[in-house]
Automatic annotation (TrEMBL):
This is Pyridoxine/pyridoxamine 5'-phosphate oxidase. It comes from Rhodoplanes tepidamans. Its cofactor is FMN. Substrate binds at K65, Y122, R126, S130, R190, L191, H192. Belongs to the pyridoxamine 5'-phosphate oxidase family.
Length: 213
């Protein structure tokens, strides 16, 4: 998997001509690169919406950790609420909102778990204290107090004081493989530009059409 910083672009699609793009990943990469230069914090922040087995939706912010032709990757615990919802209903929607550029991108599609070796490689790149935090946190579970969490951090800090910190078995990566990608550009008087790319399957070609604002 390519890291978001390693993707190369053959050309830039400017605000005026993005509706002429015929392939969504290159357009996303160009917009993402611009956001990295203009957003004050976390240009890779995206809202991820999932639903439980009963269809009740849930949404939260996560960080994009990589994207390529296979999809968009983020990490969490399998035992977290989002992990349990993905297990019950393996599909999701996501949105990036780059306020500095007055743009947003929406994604919808199936979600699958990334291979262990891919998750291991990303986990190894994290700061040591973040690795400790992954062990210390029972993500989304009730927490009796902040002190209890700090004790857990202290315990795993001591346990892994020497050597490498392994990846917790429940800390995994998920890949959203979009079947739909919508690009939205703000325009005066709410006369926005909206372009949608859709495909029936992840290996099918993209079709494109515009939407009314």
């Amino acid at each position: 998997m390519s890291d978001t910083r390693s993707i190369e672009h053959t050309s830039r699609l400017t605000t005026g001509d993005f509706t002429e793009a015929d392939e969504p990943l290159a357009l996303f990469a160009a917009w993402y690169e611009e956001a990295r230069g203009s957003e004050p914090a976390d240009p890779n922040a995206m809202a991820i919406a999932t639903a439980d087995a009963g269809g009740m939706p849930n949404v939260r912010m996560v960080l994009l950790k990589g994207f390529d032709e296979r999809g968009f990757v983020f990490y969490t615990h399998q035992t977290s609420q989002k992990g349990q919802e993905i297990a019950a209903n393996p599909s999701a929607a996501a949105v990036f909102h780059w306020k500095s550029l007055q743009r947003q991108v929406r994604l919808r599609g199936p979600v699958s778990q990334v291979p262990d070796e891919e998750a291991d490689a990303y986990f190894d790149s994290r700061p040591r204290q973040s690795k400790i935090g992954a062990w210390a946190s029972k993500q989304s579970s009730p927490l009796e107090s902040r002190l209890a969490f700090e004790k857990s951090v202290a315990y795993y800090t001591a346990k892994y004081a020497i050597g490498t910190v392994p990846r917790p078995p429940t800390w995994v990566g998920y890949r959203l493989a979009p079947l739909s990608i919508e690009f939205w550009q703000d325009r005066p008087f709410r006369l926005h530009d909206r372009v949608v790319f859709k495909r029936e399957r992840t290996i099918a070609p993209w079709t494109k059409f515009r939407l009314y604002p």
